[in-house]
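User: Can you predict the 3D structure for this chain?
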Amino acid sequence: MTTSPDRVVDVAAVAEQPLAPPSANGGLTDVFRRRYLLKLLVQKELQARYQGSALGLLWSYVQPMVRFLMYFLVLGLILGLHHSVKNYAIHIFSGMTVVHYFTETFSSGTRAIVRNSAIVKKMAMPREMFPVASVIVSAIHVFPQMIILIVGAFFTGWVPTLGGVAAMMMSLLIITVLGTALALLFSALNVFFRDFQNIVQTLTIFTTWIVPMIYPFATFAHGTAKHPLLYYIYLADPLAPAVLLMQKAVWLPTFMKGPIGYPDVPNHLWLLSFCTLGACLGILLVCQLAFTRLENRIAERL
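Assistant: Here is the predicted structure, written as structure tokens:
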């Protein structure tokens, strides 16, 4: 069989090109195009987490209840905050649900690629699938907490409204987008420097105090009345509007029947929430671009 000179040159040129990584990565869109693989990975994560456990997924109910009782007993009863904050149990648990969803997403997402290193090195699949699967698993675990929160609020006088449900969904959406963005970036960085998973664990310690979970927002608003810059810096944290939305949806309606506004929540909370969601989407885009730059070196570093 004869081969033209042009064909020989083409083959030689191709042979000199560097090998392409086996990930066939198309970004987050490619992850959801391969939903079957994503479903299998989520199932694997759930099975691995509860392997050998007698209670299994019931731990998703037990752990938040124990965490809530710890905060409520120490802060509510011993320190007496339940006297100064109406329905303090609902207040603290509505904030705890949002904070725990974020910390779980951020922490598990950071370890996702390293934890699945054997699969990453052997299979051609988008690397983003691993942190995304961790986000989905965290969302599954927040569902029992939402049930506990809604049942508790119902027994304290809460009545669901369309606006409340919308605020609840917006709160969870902000955390999902932000958690996905940070999980993408830090999961890749953690491959190169394992210190990042410890850095993330350290950062999540502060989340309890930089949102109105232990204390009501009205207390913070009065305390920063003479310091407007601190007030706006506080609201620039995406977690703060997410917690406030959840409290506006579930906690405040348990004792407030009229319009809800400052100082219980910031003025124009919905405008702030949409701006926060837009900023989180921008962060997600930046983190996706950074992940793409690092992705080609992930397999060799593992």
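Residues 162-192 form the longest helix (31 residues). The radius of gyration is 23 Å.
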